[in-house]
Specification:
This is Phosphoribosylglycinamide formyltransferase. Belongs to the GART family. This protein has six helices and ten strands, in the order E-H-E-H-E-H-E-H-E-H-E-E-H-E-E-E. The protein is α/β, with parallel strands linked by helices. The radius of gyration is 16 Å and the shape is globular. The structure holds 5-O-phosphono-beta-D-ribofuranosylamine.
Length: about 200
Amino acid sequence: SRILVLISGSGSNLQALLDASRADDYPGEVVAVIANKADAYGLTRAENAGVDAIALSHTSFGSREAYDQALIEKIDAYQPDLVVLAGFMRILTPGFVQHYSGKLLNIHPSLLPKYQGLNTHQRAIDAGDREHGVSVHFVTEELDGGPVILQAKVPVFPEDQASDLASRVHEQEHRIYPLVVKWFCQQRLCMLNDQALLDNQPL
Ligand code: GRF
């Protein structure tokens, strides 16, 4: 399967996907990486892996719709089977989300439905949570609200700072995102009526 990855920053999840997809039996291939920021380090990771790396800055577009339309054109040129959001820090328009419905995945650093939006690690600490984690989900029009496919939990220790928790969560992100992408590429995963199915079983 052809995978296209959207990023805004460091791209450590992109790296995990690039590494996983190097295995001979991995059923997908990253065909391009697009960032909305020209200085996103993930673009360098893509180049180092020999993958097309494209910067499409949002700043010169007059509206969210105009940017998303330009993004759609760039993406569709690669005819991807799957579009993977990996730290793409932009809210997508309904038109964009509908265009890729059922083939758009996101990773969010919380145990959804808890802590949609930003600063999830600090919010988990402030709430006194004993556990925290990460969720991979299909993207729907509701921000961080689409059906969850897989979660991983981590403990929260009393002395944790947000950065401690972030690195603990990142380790799990790098484990579960390539796994879910693999399931998708194996055609074991789909979204039906806003419900995620694995091997035809509701998740
Ligand atoms: C991750 O924490 C991910 O859950 C969130 O954005 C971050 C991206 O990190 N959506 P990286 O760029 O993959 O290192």
